[in-house]
Amino acid sequence: MAAASLPSVTVFGAGAIGSAVAQLAVKAGASVQVLARDAAKAAAAADGATAGTIGDAVTGDLVVLALPYPAIAEVLSAYPADAFAGKIVVDPSNPIDFATLDSVVAPGSSAAAEVAERLPGAQVVKAFNTNFAATLAAGTIAGEPVTVYAAADSEDAKATLRALVEAAGLAYVDAGALKRAHELEAMGALQIGLALSEQVAWTGGFAVIK
């Protein structure tokens, strides 16, 4: 199978994860757009990326919703559903209630499944939710390349994301179909809980050693 070419990338959100993903996409050599509510924060997210505000046209073929779980529906509502038709939409969110450290979506479901239901014309991928922003920015954890897990029903979407991740020097693991987003979100919740209880550093986390 031929290697997938690098996609153009749009990142929604200029927080820690959004900035880290935008920076790794620039490092990979992709064309990157960052959209946020604050244009100045979008401009500061990644050198080499173009910046704009939510509501601007989405230029990327691969869209990363680097937003807190409660903000995803609101941001998507700023666009017609067909604005994402044919695009790869990556959901890095962890649907966590930080008061209880419990998931806020129904058992057996996932935030990614909700995104897929809202955007039926898109190819939805769950990825980056098991990575802390500091490790994505560093590119390594415990001396090994950071591993990005990805779950999606589209093999082409996963191949495209893999090309981007590996071009940035990170490792990639295919976690299976989109239904596995439920397990990935459980991993993300566990890791966040361990960090909040200071049992794992925000510069650490889960690693894959092959």
UniProtKB/TrEMBL annotation:
Family annotation (InterPro entries): NAD(P)-bd_dom_sf, P5C_Rdtase_cat_N, STEAP_metalloreductase
Span of domain Pyrroline-5-carboxylate reductase catalytic N-terminal: 9-95
Superkingdom in the source lineage: Bacteria
Keywords: Oxidoreductase
Gene Ontology MF term list: oxidoreductase activity
UniProt cross-references to Pfam families, sorted A to Z: F420_oxidored
Name of this protein: Pyrroline-5-carboxylate reductase catalytic N-terminal domain-containing protein
